[in-house]
What we know:
By secondary structure, the chain is an alpha/beta fold. The chain has one domain: Rossmann fold, CATH 3.40.50. It is 38% helix and 18% strand.
Amino acid sequence: MDYRQYLCEYWDRISKGNEADYPNGVDPKGYRGEKHIPYLGDYDPDHMLNLYYPEDYDPSSGSIPSVIYIHGGGWMYGSADISERYLGFLASRGFAVMAMNYRLLQRADLREIIADIFDAMHWLGKYGPARGFDLGKVLVCGDSAGGHLSILTTCISLSSELQGIYGVKELPYKISAVSVSSPVTETSKLYISDMEGTPNGEGTAKAYLDMMLGAKGDSAPWNGHMAASETMPGLEMPPFYIIDSEMDSLSMHTGYLLDTMEKNGFTYEKIFWTASDGIHLQHVFNISHWEWKESREANEGMLDFFLRVTGK
Length: 312
């Protein structure tokens, strides 16, 4: 079986299903947005970003804490637009929010994805302050694959070695805190279509690694510098807020992350639901259904955590 093609078809089905379900969602109130701003000069749809603010916010009144969101979708699906309701809710609570598109694995390896994310974050460093983003208070958050990219981006921002490996420049601001929802953190354990040790499970895991490493394959400089367990140790990581549920089919990755956090003495808080709390609390539920009681508890908790660790 061609497992790369399998993954492309799998994420295409997810995309179509989410598109069909979108009209059933609930729109938050109290925010406004600026959409599809090019962060590079090529006007590639994958190089656009969105900004969100409280509805009545005026940058001339002073800056407000910043949230940078990196979308999920298995590194193969999605854009900043797919989580707009969640981002609008965050903005309505008094935050300036930036979310970027990035090239997906169908046309880019992991190094190129990271290059896109850093280009968007450098755009924010240059233009954000005039638009009201307080870059002294920056939360980076992401869900699923976006959780992995949020962690990796933070690690790269703290390490000149990783900046060299990924070919990006140091950011002009520091990441104050990180939050991940249903994070998929271990790039060698991406068993999507079946369990570890099965032909389908191992096939999809290898296909993911092959796409992340790109044309250079195992000789890619970022090989061995992709997973949370590979990049976090030895760095002075900012505080983390971790959101997940026992009903998440990929919650073992949160377990991997917590092991890494504990082994290295990193600071974190977590909110984790059990199966007895409800079958609806599945993968990235707090993003796809921001309006649920449990989602609001998680998302409000994340924002409160951010304000506490930044001293506001």
